Amino acid sequence: MANEHAADQLKERGNAHFRKGEYASAEACYSQAIQKNSKNPLFYTNRANARLKLERWQDVIDDCIRSIELMKENMKAFFYLAQAQLAINHPNEALSSALMAYELCVHSTAQTSNAATISALVLKCKKTKWEGRERDRIRRRGELLGELEEKLEEIKKKDLFDIDEMVANGKMGTVEAEEERESVNETFAKKVKELRTAFAVSDPEHMAKRDVPDYLVDPITFEIMHDPVVTKHGHSYERATLIEHLKRSPTDPLTRELLRIEDLRPNIALREACTEFLEQNSGWAYDW
């Protein structure tokens, strides 16, 4: 009992550090709390969140897995896990974790404001996964493009490694390092975009990037909508999936505000946009 009380006090101290942006100190307090009480799954999610801020991705993954082992229906653990998996370029695993977090969120009886944030993460994971498939498809269509992209990727990785080395040797601070990493990533993205544009112009049928606009995607199933409806709160969903949700819980899945089936109205303009998109891209859109 004494250890549990001491652990709770350490957790609160960690929370205070976290609110101030003192993430390393927060992590240290959460670690001490875990030493006092290793059976509390919330201590691991607290530490995982601090480690997210510190970009210690594998440590985040380890904490989340341990937290889930202690509490299966652990929305925050799956949410943090997805972010770390996405950061280390594991979009398939990240999408699975994000979908689990979203499922737990929308079926929770407690009022929560996390649904929209988790929904955005799911969509980000799905788009990242799709972009990986698109990159592979385009590379298969153009061997030279693939070789050039791989070369750019190697340069980016070397630049990021050099930044990490400078931080480790004390030659660069964390704030400056973060700015440099952002610059490297932006430069890489710009060069890849320019490269793909050049190849797309030369072979528009096979080299053009294919993507689905966010506004066409149902925020419940994350598939392209066919019959969208709009709620009184201004959110659009696929009619069938939203009605199925409302049978279980009479609330807007994203805002958690009260919502009834009779409040729904057809979103005619969006339906026309969805139909037009599917007709123009029927060869691949259903695989998205």
Automatic annotation (TrEMBL):
GO terms for molecular function: peptidyl-prolyl cis-trans isomerase activity; protein-folding chaperone binding; ubiquitin protein ligase activity. It comes from the Eukaryota. GO terms for biological process: cellular response to misfolded protein; positive regulation of proteolysis; proteasome-mediated ubiquitin-dependent protein catabolic process; protein polyubiquitination; protein quality control for misfolded or incompletely synthesized proteins. Residues 211-284 form the U-box domain. TPR repeats lie at residues 7-40. It catalyses: S-ubiquitinyl-[E2 ubiquitin-conjugating enzyme]-L-cysteine + [acceptor protein]-L-lysine = [E2 ubiquitin-conjugating enzyme]-L-cysteine + N(6)-ubiquitinyl-[acceptor protein]-L-lysine. SMART domains: TPR (SM00028), Ubox (SM00504). PROSITE patterns: TPR, U_BOX. It holds the Pfam family U-box. The keyword ATP-binding does not apply. One of its GO terms (cellular component) is cytoplasm. InterPro entries: TPR-like_helical_dom_sf, TPR_rpt, Ubox_domain, Znf_RING/FYVE/PHD. Keywords: Isomerase, Repeat, Rotamase, TPR repeat, Transferase, Ubl conjugation pathway. This is U-box-domain-containing protein. It comes from Glonium stellatum.
